[in-house]
Specification:
By secondary structure, the chain is of the alpha/beta class. About 35% of the residues lie in helices and about 20% in strands. The protein contains 18 helices and 18 strands. The longest helix is centred in the first third of the chain and has 14 residues. The N and C termini lie far apart (about 60 Å). It binds adenosine monophosphate. Adenosine monophosphate binds next to helix 3.
């Protein structure tokens, strides 16, 4: 087994770059994967962020590129915009001795036309999120005929985010003769099925780092249609949480549940199909930074939700298909923490519960609690109606205005802003705007300070987000 880069059959140019970057020894996933990929074989690999997997698939791709042709030769599919940017950055870094190399990111939430213009000018490697990549393939702005390698990075996360159909359509749109690379932290049945359908004799690479995957505790509570709201209140109070994602099957149900929770004084918002991209981003930013505790969504509207550290997923209704159940509950129990999923099931849902258990090979605990016959329920239930700790301020400047987290922090603390560091939460910088979470108690003062002061010597508009 080779243990240095020199014995991995990489080109002199790539070896030089690796050395310049200070990568002295290849990581285990690189040792195992690079020879397989250089040989042109399909690969299904277990890996996590930080394992060096990006270089593991990027180096062989770079080695096999034909730079004299400006056709798209490799497609890398990632779950999020952020990961796509990160992968593209690493590929450009490793490809710095490849003169004329073009690596393009194609992610959602960005205008389509500049992306198709760049594609038309010629690109070697495209990195992007499933929805947008599929859009380009369907509209013909990506020409897939020269794609020799496709990588599905963090495939299990893409499944959790509801991208299975898009991933499969992308694979179907590519030439049959190609290399298919799949990286995933876990291997649920759906991943195995995708591998069987879309890969050929894939070599399996697993790195045993001794860490156990996070556990998800799954519970179900029997509640008939008319008792569901009571059951939801009870579950929210019983299973204490910082934040919870509540799934409904229909938009109409979302509205009903949201109204009920809001009138009880809960901090709640919802994602439904009528929101535009900006509104949707704003709702998600508020949920991620603890400005809203409960988020209600349908599966369609919830596609692409990427929230780390979710304590609790509630199925207000069981989904129609067991696979969807798996996607929903997979959003909790990340980052090594135990997750919790509570499903409210009617008596007619019993066969569905069994189907889910069959698919996952895990038993869903039945909670013995008769929500109808419980007089103490209502008072107990109100315990969930706490306000969220933070408020979100929207600032009209972002990355393209050279605004960095430290600049916003600086404007809010010290003499100018007067806030304590402890009052400031997550700062999210996007292209043209930023979101900053601040303690609810000081949020108005913070908005005033930001509108009076300057960030990077410039004035930006600051406003409080959310309904009030
Ligand atoms: P990844 O798991 O792909 O997100 O990579 C994690 C980080 O490790 C990235 O910042 C890489 O630049 C870096 N990296 C990748 N391979 C090596 C290596 N062989 N030696 C040292 N650092 C590496």
């Amino acid at each position: 087994m080779p243990t240095d880069f020199a014995s991995l059959d990489l080109s002199p140019a790539l070896l030089a770059v690796v050395q310049e970057l200070g990568y002295t020894t290849p990581t285990p996933i690189q040792v195992e994967s690079i020879p397989v990929l250089l040989a042109g074989k399909d690969l299904i690999g277990q890996s996590k962020t930080g394992s060096g997997k990006t270089a593991a698939f990027s180096l062989p791709i770079l080695q096999s590129l034909d730079l004299s042709s400006r056709s798209l030769q490799a497609l890398i599919v990632c779950p999020t915009r952020e990961l796509s940017e990160q992968v593209a950055r690493e590929a450009r870094k490793l490809g710095r001795k490849h003169d004329g190399l073009v690596v393009l990111t194609l992610t959602g939430g960005k205008p389509f036309a500049p992306q198709s213009d760049s594609l038309a000018r010629g690109v070697h490697i495209a990195v992007g999120t499933p929805g947008r990549l599929l859009d380009h393939l369907t509209r013909g702005t990506i020409d897939p005929s020269g794609v020799a390698t496709v990588v599905l990075d963090e495939a299990d996360r893409m499944l959790d985010m509801g991208f299975q159909a898009d991933m499969e359509k992308i694979l179907e749109a590519l030439p049959k003769k190609r290399q298919t690379v799949l990286f995933s932290a876990t291997f649920p049945k759906t991943i195995e099925a995708i591998s069987r359908t879309h890969q050929k004799n894939a070599v399996r690479v697993t790195i045993d780092d001794g860490e156990q995957p996070a556990e998800i505790r799954q519970l179900t509570l029997l509640a008939e249609r008319d008792d569901k709201l009571s059951a939801l209140y009870w579950a929210l109070a019983e299973y204490t949480h910082e934040s919870a994602l509540i799934f409904c099957n229909l938009k109409a149900t979302i509205a009903e549940v949201e109204r009920a929770l809001a009138s009880s004084g809960a901090s709640v918002d919802s994602l439904h199909g009528d929101l535009d991209q900006f509104e949707r981003d704003q709702v998600l930013a508020r949920f991620r930074n603890q400005s809203v505790r409960l988020l209600i969504a349908t599966d369609v509207a919830g596609r692409g939700i990427d929230v780390e550290d979710l304590d609790l997923v509630i199925n207000y209704e069981l989904p129609t298909q067991p696979e969807i159940y798996v996607h929903r509950v997979g959003r909790t129990g990340r980052a090594g923490k135990e997750g919790l999923a509570v499903s409210l099931a009617t008596s007619r849902d019993k066969p569905k519960l069994r189907e889910i258990e069959e698919l996952t090979g895990r038993v869903i605990e039945r909670v013995k609690r008769d929500v109808r016959a419980d007089p103490g329920l209502v008072s107990h239930a109100k315990a969930f109606a706490r306000p969220a700790p933070m408020d979100t301020i929207l600032i009209s400047g972002g990355r393209k205005d050279k605004v960095r987290p430290g600049d916003i922090l600086g404007a809010l603390t010290g003499d100018a802003g007067g806030l304590q560091g402890a009052d400031i939460g997550k700062i999210e910088i996007q292209d043209r705007l930023s979101y900053v979470a601040v303690s609810r108690a000081v949020s108005r003062a913070a908005v005033t300070a930001l509108n009076k002061g300057r960030i990077k010597g410039r004035r930006f508009r600051a406003t409080l987000t959310g309904r009030r």
